């Protein structure tokens, strides 16, 4: 199956859900997310166990095990520039088929397998939208309807991933009754969220401190 996850370098990834996937023994996953975390933080816990067959991501540099798996041919890595990756996920969540980009259109490696079109005499590369069977995200607070609030950098890619999953599971620090959140502070409406679970605590605070 395809699993999409929020966060940046482990920060903002849902640790309780990731630990549950690890204990469940799920393998042969196709992942979509900003990075591969650290070997023992974030999605890196799953990657480092060799349970991922394919990943679409912007970088793997913080997890040397991911580099080894790629080099050894044990994990297919499709790199997508960070901004392009975010836009591909957003497009998937909005129901669009893809986006157009003129980044690196003269690079043979980047062009491989891509379609092109011309608009106003300019050539653009078609970057397909990204969706997932399941998206897992982390939020600071949720009400029981699934409306989500994110905290600082832990918001990174989480709102986009929440939109792009056929099923979205939100791990949250605090769950409150409907009506306790101010409308203007809600980032992800509950219509995008299928399940909410109480977080057992994060393991990533030290990563960038």
TrEMBL record:
Keywords, alphabetical: Transferase
Molecular-function GO terms, alphabetical: transferase activity
UniProt cross-references to InterPro entries, sorted A to Z: 3-oxoacid_CoA-transf_A, CoA_trans_fam_I, NagB/RpiA_transferase-like
A Pfam family that the UniProt record links to this protein: CoA_trans
Domain of life: Bacteria
Protein name, UniProt field: CoA transferase subunit A
């Amino acid at each position: 199956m395809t699993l999409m996850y929020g966060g940046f370098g482990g920060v903002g990834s849902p640790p309780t859900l990731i630990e549950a996937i690890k204990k469940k023994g799920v393998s042969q996953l196709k992942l979509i997310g900003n990075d591969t975390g650290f070997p023992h933080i974030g999605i890196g816990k799953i990657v480092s166990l060799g349970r991922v067959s394919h990943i679409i991501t912007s970088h793997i540099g913080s997890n040397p095990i991911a580099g080894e798996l790629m080099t050894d041919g044990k994990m297919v890595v499709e790199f997508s520039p960070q901004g392009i990756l975010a836009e591909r996920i957003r497009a998937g969540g909005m129901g669009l088929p893809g986006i157009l980009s003129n980044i690196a259109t003269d690079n043979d490696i980047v062009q491989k397998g891509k379609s092109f079109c011309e608009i106003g005499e300019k050539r653009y590369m078609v970057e397909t939208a990204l969706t997932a069977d399941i998206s897992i995200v982390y939020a600071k607070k949720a009400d029981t309807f699934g409306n989500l609030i994110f905290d600082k950098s832990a918001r990174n890619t989480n709102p986009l991933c929440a939109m792009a999953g056929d099923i979205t599971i939100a791990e949250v620090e605090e769950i409150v009754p409907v009506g306790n959140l101010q409308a203007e502070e809600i980032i992800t409406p509950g219509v995008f969220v299928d399940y909410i679970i109480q977080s057992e605590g994060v393991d990533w605070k030290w990563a960038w401190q």
